[in-house]
UniProtKB/TrEMBL annotation:
Membrane spanning stretches: none
A Pfam family hit: LytTR
Database matches in InterPro entries: CheY-like_superfamily (IPR011006), LytR-like (IPR046947), LytTR_DNA-bd_dom (IPR007492)
Gene3D superfamilies referenced in this protein's UniProt entry, alphabetically: 3.40.50.2300, LytTr DNA-binding domain
UniProt keyword list: Activator, Cytoplasm, Two-component regulatory system
PROSITE patterns, sorted: HTH_LYTTR
The HTH LytTR-type domain, residue ranges: 146-247
Identification of the protein by name: Response regulator of the LytTR family
Highest classification ranks of the organism: Bacteria, Bacillati, Bacillota, Bacilli, Lactobacillales
Coiled coil feature spans: none
GO molecular function ontology, one term from the record: DNA binding
Length: 255
């Protein structure tokens, strides 16, 4: 989940920004959690200390009254603490925008306080959308997702849901068997194998998720799955399939 955190020292502006974010979340069906607004760097750090936040989006004022640490310092510190963090700077000082580049903070964007509430609301919405898109892109690049292409769309599902993929010879079609059912798509099995290295090619026609196999029968050369189905193992792949199954599971080999 994308976690949104805002740090602003002006009480009135904090209320305005909080309302903008909450209104956005009411209108959008997105996996975003708004952690709240905080008045200074120390308060922010105390609020998130010990929390398991992996994908944060911070909106940071560049100056905090009574604090030597500014938003640029805070941004650099948060970047080290949260490698996947996105940062937006909120400021009235246009001349400070260049400094963010010089400090290598690499912000997602900027909100200019003098632009007026309507413009700010639109800008914050755009940045929330952009931050969420980057968050989903990070998820899609993870090792624990199964990736495939259906038509012009790139699809991803949890790898743990996949039993196996069967390619239909001569039809240029694949059938994907998952815990929620099955689906078909057209893509070469070699490309699917390349895009999903955690799957195992047990024959010319099958790519399998060995973690969801429940039994290997080395006599009949079959892999059996939780859904009650079985797939064939080629003679040349039988030894490697047996070794991989043994490494993945214990005491489930039938000979």
């Amino acid at each position: 989940m994308l976690e949104v955190v805002w740090c602003e020292d002006d009480p009135q502006q904090r209320l305005q920004y909080e309302k903008i974010v909450k209104n956005y979340l009411l209108m959008k069906d997105v996996s975003i959690n708004f952690r709240g607004t905080y008045s200074n760097p120390n308060e922010l750090r105390s609020a998130i200390a010990g929390l398991k936040i992996k994908y944060p989006l911070f909106f940071l004022d560049i100056e905090y009254s009574g604090f030597e640490e500014d938003g640029l310092d805070l941004g650099q510190s948060l970047r080290k603490q949260f490698p996947f963090a996105e940062i937006v700077f909120v400021t009235t000082h246009n001349e400070l925008l260049l400094a963010t580049m010089e400090r290598s903070v690499e912000p997602l964007g900027f909100v200019i306080k003098d632009d007026g509430l309507d413009v700010i609301q639109k800008k914050v919405g755009e940045l929330l959308t952009r931050g969420y898109e980057k968050y989903t892109n990070v998820l899609e690049s993870g090792d624990e997702l199964f990736r495939y292409k259906r038509g012009n769309s790139n699809k991803v599902i949890p790898l743990s849901d996949v039993f196996y993929l069967e390619t239909i010879s001569g039809e240029h079609k694949n059938i994907l068997y998952t815990k929620s059912g099955m689906t078909t798509f057209a893509e070469s099995i070699s490309q699917v194998e390349k895009d999903n290295p955690d799957l195992y090619r047990c024959s010319n026609s099958f790519l399998v998720n060995m973690k969801n196999a429940i039994l290997i029968d080395t006599v009949l050369r079959l892999l059996k799955f939780e859904n009650g189905e079985s797939v064939n193992i080629s003679v040349r792949n039988l030894k490697s399939a047996r070794i991989l199954f043994g490494e993945t599971h214990k005491e489930r080999t039938h000979e």
